[in-house]
Amino acid sequence: MxxxxxxxxxxxxxxxxxxxxxxxxxxxxxNPANGELFAEVPEGTREDARAALEAAKAAxxxxxxxxxxxxxxxxxxxxxxxxxxxxxxxxxxxQEQGKPLHEARGELGGTSExxxxxxxxxxxxxxxxxxxxNQDEDIWIRNVPYGVVVAxxxxxxxxxxxxxxxxxxxxxxxxxxxxxxxxxxxxxxxxTKLVEAAGVxxxxxxxxxxxxxxxxxxxxxxxxxxxxxxxxxxxxGRQILAAAAHNITVVSLELGGKAPFIVMDDANMExxxxxxxxxxxxxxxxxxxxxxxTYVQRHIYDEFxxxxxxxxxxxxxxxPMQAGIDLGPKxxxxxxxxxxxxxxxxxxxxxxxxxxxxxxxGEQFRKGFWYEPTVLTNVRNDMDIMxxxxxxxxTPIMPFDDFDEAIALANDSKYGLSAYLFTNDLKRMxxxxxxxxxxxxxxxxxxxxxxxxxHTGYGLSGQGGDDGTHGLSxxxxxxxxxxSYNDTPASNLMPYPAA
Length: 499
Fold this sequence. Notes:
Helices cover about 35% and strands about 20% of the residues. The protein is of the alpha/beta class. The protein folds into two domains: about 10-255 and about 460-480, Aldehyde Dehydrogenase, Chain A, domain 1, CATH 3.40.605; about 260-445, Aldehyde Dehydrogenase, Chain A, domain 2, CATH 3.40.309.10. It has a seven-stranded mixed beta sheet with strand order 15-16-17-14-13-19-20, sandwiched between helices. It has a six-stranded mixed beta sheet with strand order 10-9-8-11-12-22, sandwiched between helices. The chain has a three-stranded mixed beta sheet with strand order 1-5-4, covered by helices on one side. Helix 3 packs across helix 4 (about 100-120).
């Protein structure tokens, strides 16, 4: 098996077997820091997708029959193996995704924590008892697994999002087929090796690599699939919803974001600037909860802008494997060209570039998918740059006059995932809690979101959600059972026929 060395060849995992694609084709994996090939994975087919679903279906009854504490034991063992292999896995994340090594190490910390957290539900309640209208009778509402879950995961957090889907699905008694993104399939494969090493039975976890239009489409459309959980783009979410419609398959979507970052005149300026920088440039801006549009109260706008630009200009770009690096590359050429077009369009609409605005100079940036930290001013809320998700290291900053205007600007979006407010005024905080139409609101802090919370969005940001007890509940469906222990026939029964 491959271990992430140069030009390594990986395999898929289906029903407890490591195998290539049924058609024999492979897909290249590129290092975004230099654009060079360093690994290959199978180019999965519809037949491979079907084989993985059949394996998951066959394994699910026995897996669901295990006591919760037994499933939890497998999760804890997987978490322990992730911790043991964290440095190797973090370096693999850097190779295939491009984030700085210190960020990848943080991602692997979260990867193990998802398994540890959901293992705590091994003895949790799995239903409720409701009083009946009738004597000597109960109504039970039980949580039962869906059966076979398909998880579609993106490229920005290829390790953490694997565990964010796999851990709760398994804890609830489901089996799962993972479809990693084409650009970042290696983390899912390596983590599946650890799931296998933890003793999880064959067929419980399966990984199929390949094109979303082929493998992903086949997985979502198949009648074996009972639940689809997706983290990805709005475009992907729409396609998956359409594909799932034929079988009325349940779909949970965590999609894009356009997070407003509001700074009021009474905020701690240093705290606001530092948090705004981190929330924008972490993972090169490739985070659904990123600060996508910054709004600053007008009479502190100039000071905020000066501090923000100064701090952004000191961010260090370079080889993401090296220490002291703040920004790595974009994940691929398509994403790089997209943000170039967005900056160009913003300038056409009147925005001014006050920092960055192009690919960096220098030999080390000649190859790969690099873009400088960029700050735009003179923006309006109706500009494309303020309405469309950027997903890159670009900050549009806009002044506003009062709190009501800030709320209106924030809500003027088709997205509704995360929002940020920096103020020391309790009334403003509570107004934001009531009036900001986003699934997550951060006040005087930024993320990442916590395991025990609930990561959910409104509008184009999706439906359903992840994390905590509410996230786990998405991996259950309900079964209602009426139980009578009364020997007296109920009054509404048909009379016996005459003898």
